[in-house]
Design brief:
The chain has 678 residues and is of the alpha/beta class. The protein contains 23 helices and 30 strands. Helices cover 31% and strands 19% of the residues. The strands form eight sheets. Strands 5-4-18-17-16-6-7 form a seven-stranded mixed β-sheet, sandwiched between helices. The longest helix has 19 residues, at 75-93. The radius of gyration is 24 Å and the shape is globular.
């Protein structure tokens, strides 16, 4: 038996595990007993992280569409088809007629190279990834206020906090090991506030559960802050020493009495006051949020409110405090760090800055780099739908299931002249492609992932990829060579990380040989630096923290007579993202074989619906047939659906309206109706 220490491929918690193999075949996993995050434990997905690797549906050869069908091809033919196809589109429609989509499932090194391929080889800033769909609100809001768009504290801070405020995060299902940390802290005496209109598992352990209406986070948080200010509970010493623009915040809060917020949120005013006093009265209080905060047409405003609340009470820069967005995919933090963004190079260096472009151009061979702003992925989908984006290269993502308004996403991809998908399975998106490139999965390559707490960790290869599949970085390097660029000839991923560290100050001290056993947390500016567990200890990344007033804007689509119910979406404990890996893991698929919709019994009673019966849920964009689960978990008037299941695709219903600053879609609320299936 052989054991290879690597990083779990699922959520952003960053658990490490040993992949156990016998004669080159994976047979199981063992959690790392000494890792500082998972400490000998794994969630059910982690325990099954080996199960999909040798699935018979793995892609093993390149595929090219000929006469309407995808047929096997050799690597040379496939690479030439990609390069000539992109060049042809750019030749007729301009360099910015192509869009590159990086991947939160790929390594840092691979995302860096795809960014380099887009900007240096094909001359466009049109590079983005799925953070646009989950945490672009976080990056936009926190960079403006703190100077850094990442989790401020470390996971071990959950053990040191006096109060944890969880809002918009079903932590035990999305990030189970962090959810366990929170529950263990509560057992030791830590206070817990949960703000979620569903009765999630954490709410049953909470000292206060705020079941506010979906989309009313700004009124809730604003009224909490108004109470803190009016009752003299703000940390005036911290505010005076380390922040600016406080007066503007106070002025903006003047109308947000608890009674006013109660009329919008559906809470009692007393609940809001209690939450404010509990949070402000704690010696150390953490804010924890996820996509229940970010995936709104006002997601940036939600994030700003969280940051304002933390600064108002001095809960930044100390153990057990901070603003802590939990990243949903294993390397979504790293993909952001690597510059898989239309306006940033690696290390969050702005593409609009001519000095930044000059630095990268010099390192990459002297050719000028593009100065035209790139498109966010969501706007690129709209542009493909309208015809101005003519080609897409998608690495490791499945927008047919993950994008809002599935019909719109499908129509956009159908209108492309060229669609290239690089993945490990023939996903719903890959089936539409003109070229499919077979990639190695996490177990079949080395490199690094960066977790939600900014911890950069090593992957170690445990087995060979199937057939002719290759690691993503090797495919990207081969594409560059096929396009005539010689600047991606690497002997391995350690050399790519050396280039990343030379060009990216926050990774300046990170190299593969420094990451044994359990990684380093950025910023790590030089090779003598130990890494940074907590951000903003003595000063904010931007110097001083900036309060930013927020005006309330409600959801873009609310219930009416035609569509009287509210739909919200999320994940389940047993599955992850679009299910391409978990639904090919036997035990996980056995536990949750199909989609479902949670229905409050009162809503079920209006249509004589029984538990387990089928319904059709319809919105202005589509309809889905799905089985109903009658439960008090959801309040009256609200339906919940997971988005993992192609057969019951929740995103056939969701709204494609975007936050105007971060361009994130409003996944978390839309108007629907529900009818029994006869």
């Amino acid at each position: 038996m052989q054991r290879a220490l690597t990083v779990c491929p699922y959520c952003g918690t960053g658990c490490m595990l040993h992949l156990v193999s016998d004669s080159g075949r994976l047979v199981g996993v063992e959690p790392s007993a000494t890792h500082p995050v998972n400490r000998g434990s794994l969630c059910i997905k982690g325990w099954n992280a080996f199960a999909f690797v040798a699935h018979p549906e793995r892609l093993t050869r390149p595929l090219i569409r000929k006469n309407g069908a995808l047929v096997p091809a050799g690597w040379d033919e496939a690479l030439e088809r990609v390069v000539t196809g992109i060049r042809a589109v750019q030749g007729t429609s301009g360099k910015d007629s192509v869009m590159f989509a990086a991947s939160a499932k790929a390594t840092n090194e691979e995302n860096f190279l795809l960014m380099k391929l887009a900007r240096r080889v094909f001359g466009t800033n049109n590079i983005d990834h799925c953070a646009r769909l989950c945490h672009s609100s976080t990056v936009t809001g926190l960079v403006q206020m703190f100077g850094s768009g990442a989790m401020t504290n470390s996971i071990d801070c959950f053990d040191k906090s006096d109060l944890i405020f969880v809002i918009g995060s079903n932590t035990t299902e999305q990030h189970p090991l962090i959810g366990t940390r929170i529950m263990n802290a509560v057992r030791r005496g830590t206070k817990l506030i949960v703000a979620d209109n569903r009765c999630i598992r954490l709410s049953r352990h909470a000292d206060l559960h705020l079941r506010h209406k979906n989309g009313s986070d700004v009124p809730l948080l604003s009224a909490m802050m108004q109470t803190i200010v009016s009752e003299g509970l703000a940390d005036t010493e911290f505010i005076s020493a380390r922040t600016e623009n406080y007066g503007a915040l106070v002025e903006s809060l003047a109308g947000w009495s608890p009674e006013m917020a109660a009329s919008i949120t559906g809470l009692a005013a007393e609940e809001i006051v209690q939450a404010a006093r509990m949070f402000a009265g704690a010696r150390s209080a953490m804010i924890v949020y996820a996509m229940g905060i970010t995936q709104h047409s006002h997601g940036v405003d939600n994030v700003r409110c969280c940051a304002n609340l933390a600064m108002l009470t001095g809960n930044i820069g100390r153990p057990g405090t901070g603003v802590n967005p939990l990243r949903g995919q294993n390397n979504v933090q790293g993909a952001c760090d690597m510059g898989a963004l239309p306006d940033m190079y690696s290390g969050y260096q702005r593409a609009a800055d001519p000095d930044v472009r000059s630095k990268f151009a010099l390192a990459w061979g002297g050719e000028p780099l593009p100065d035209t702003p790139g498109l966010p992925l969501t706007l690129a989908m709209n542009a493909a739908h309208s015809g101005s984006i003519r080609a897409m290269f998608i690495m490791g993502e499945n927008p047919i299931l993950s994008d809002p308004d599935q019909g719109h996403a499908r129509a956009a991809l159908e209108r492309l002249d060229l669609l290239v998908v690089q993945d490990i399975f023939l996903t719903e998106t890959a089936r539409m492609a003109d070229v499919v490139l077979p990639a190695a999965c996490y177990a079949e390559k080395d490199g690094t992932f960066t977790s939600t707490e900014r911890r950069v960790q090593l992957l170690r290869k445990a087995c060979d990829p199937p057939g002719d599949a290759r690691p993503d970085w090797q495919i990207i390097a081969a594409l560059a060579k096929s396009a005539g660029y010689s600047g991606m000839e690497y002997n391995g991923t350690a050399e790519i990380m050396e280039e990343i560290s030379r060009l990216s100050p926050i990774y300046g001290g990170i190299s593969h040989d420094r990451l044994t056993p359990y990684g380093l947390q950025w910023p790590c500016p030089d090779h003598n630096h130990p890494g940074t567990p907590i951000l903003h200890v003595k000063g904010f990344s931007r110097g001083v923290g900036r309060f930013m007033p927020v005006a309330y804007r409600g959801p873009a689509e609310i219930p009416d007579k035609e569509y009287p119910l509210t739909l919200t979406t999320g994940r389940t404990y047993f599955h992850w993202h679009t299910g391409s890996m978990t639904r090919r893991s036997h035990l996980l698929e056995r536990e949750e074989r199909e989609g479902f919709v949670e229905v409050n019994p009162a809503d079920a009673g209006r249509i004589n619906l029984r538990d387990g019966e089928s319904v059709v849920v319809s919105s202005r964009r589509g309809k889905v047939f799905v089985r109903a689960r009658l439960t008090e978990i959801v309040p009256e008037g609200v339906l919940f659906m997971p988005f993992h299941f192609a057969e019951n695709a929740a995103n056939a219903l969701t709204n494609n309206v975007l936050d105007q600053e971060s361009h994130i879609p409003e996944f978390k609320i839309c108007a629907v109706r529900m009818e029994r299936v006869p």
